[in-house]
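Q: NRDC protein, please. Structure only.
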Amino acid sequence: YVRFHLISPLIQQSAENVVLFDTFVSILSHNLGEPAYEADVAQLEYKLVAGEHGLVIRVKGFNHKLSLLFQLIIDYLSDFSFTPAVFEMITEQLKKTYFNILIKSETLAKDVRLLILEHGRWSMIDKYQTLMNGLSIESLSSFVKAFKSQLFVEGLVQGNFAS
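A: Structure for NRDC protein:
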């Protein structure tokens, strides 16, 4: 089991940055779909989670090939690229995801409660409005570059693992 948390103070600076980060993680997951398929067949699992303060990368499975899967994820992260079609598809998916959160009373109530309790939190309404106002491909590219330049890393490797 390998878990790394790539933390960046950049994410919570604005609602736009939170939306750009969600877009970035969604595109990264999309890009990894095909190359990581063989790892899935070999019973290796990975998950990318857009946390509030950074990207959580979780990888688990048999130890002898786990490092190759983790390296694949890091390679795609460091050489991040996307097409305008993928950008458009992911932003449309995020609009639907945000909207679905807003129309469910229990998830909206949780969001409002956390907005009251946590300092510097952006509401789902703020994120949805930012997304509806439109994101540009250039803003995502500059955000990703800034994100990668301001990272702090926490990691945990557990189990029978040799480097």
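A: Brief note, in case it's useful. Residues 2-157 form a domain with the Cytochrome Bc1 Complex; Chain A, domain 1 fold (CATH 3.30.830.10).
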